[in-house]
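Chapter summary example.
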Amino acid sequence: MNGRRPKLAEWWKGALEKYKYALLIVATGVALMLLPAGGEQTARTEEQPQTQGDCFDLEQFERKLEQTLSQIAGAGQTRVVLTVDSGSRRVLAQDQERDREGGSTVSTVTVGRGSGTQEVVPLQTLAPSFRGALVVCPGGGDPQVRLKLSEAVSALTGLGTDRISVCEGNT
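The structure predicted for these 171 residues follows.
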């Protein structure tokens, strides 16, 4: 029997050397299967009531746009009306956990802010999607002024010039 042990040990050594990478992959797979189901971070867009610092104020944006467009030569005092398809949204951090049966639960990630309050973790705040714009000004009848105003509104809102109307008015 003593003569048989060295042959068996050599055979195992050769087999391990030959199949070491396959055995390493199998061992890694078994170890991963034994780990508990971990949380998986995902992002989801949700309409959320926003705090004053995060919120997009459409009226304030219109006023700022009016002031800026009034500085264009020949435009005069402008009035701007913007319409939106959707309001601003926040993308929130979410945790998705999967159990061994294949089911999953999704929960929004929150952070404690002291005194028992919890706040969601925003990943990104998305600006509203504009539908159209109307600009009324005394210089709106001049084609050059109309072009400048349309280009400026397009650059600031992302709207195409086909969705921007510039009209002459007596503002």
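To summarize the output: The first strand starts at residue 39 and ends at 46.
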